[in-house]
Write a structure and sequence with these properties.
mainly alpha, 167 residues, 3 strands, 61% helix, single chain
């Protein structure tokens, strides 16, 4: 499928392509255009619009486009739900909602402004979202296996966590 959004991507428009590729549409193609061209591209390319005005996969109330995708595609992975809070906080300038939000916003700004175009930005930001997702998943694993991991040395702990992440 083709997906279309506004050009000059930032937090929500970098998080959404990562979510789409990982959880919704692994073969997704992304199109970035001026706002006034979105409707034309939707019709011409049969693209799914996101993070634009008056679209299903856009901002609604306090929620951002990432939230809209999580809800529409019924993504229930606890790490994604936690990541959604961080993305929402960074994208809606409510940094107090998640301590990681300011860092995410800073990294997305830096990568966006230093990239030659939106496609390069998306390529660069994917590993950042992979890292956030892994870190959030690790928190859950560490809490669940707290007693077991307390007795492990660093090598054992790393091997254990890597194994659990793959499960």
């Amino acid at each position: 499928m083709k997906w279309v959004t506004r050009q000059y991507v930032h937090v929500d428009r970098t998080a959404c392509p990562w979510l789409i590729k990982k959880f919704i549409d692994p073969k997704a193609e992304f199109i970035f255009v001026p706002t006034e061209k979105i409707e034309e591209i939707v019709k011409k390319e049969k693209a799914i619009p996101y993070d634009a005005s008056d679209v299903e996969l856009g901002h609604h109330g306090d929620k951002c486009s990432f939230d809209a995708m999580v809800e529409k595609y019924n993504i229930t992975d606890p790490a994604i739900l936690e990541l959604a809070k961080i993305v929402r906080a960074a994208d809606t300038d409510k940094m107090e909602m998640a301590p990681e939000a300011a860092g995410l916003e800073a990294v997305m700004t830096g990568l966006s402004i230093s990239s030659k175009d939106d496609h390069e930005t998306i390529a660069k930001t994917g590993p950042v979202y992979d890292a956030f997702y892994t870190n959030i998943s690790l928190k859950t694993i560490r809490e669940k296996y707290k007693a077991e991991t307390a007795k492990m040395n660093m090598k054992q702990l790393v091997e254990f966590l890597r194994r659990k992440l793959k499960e």
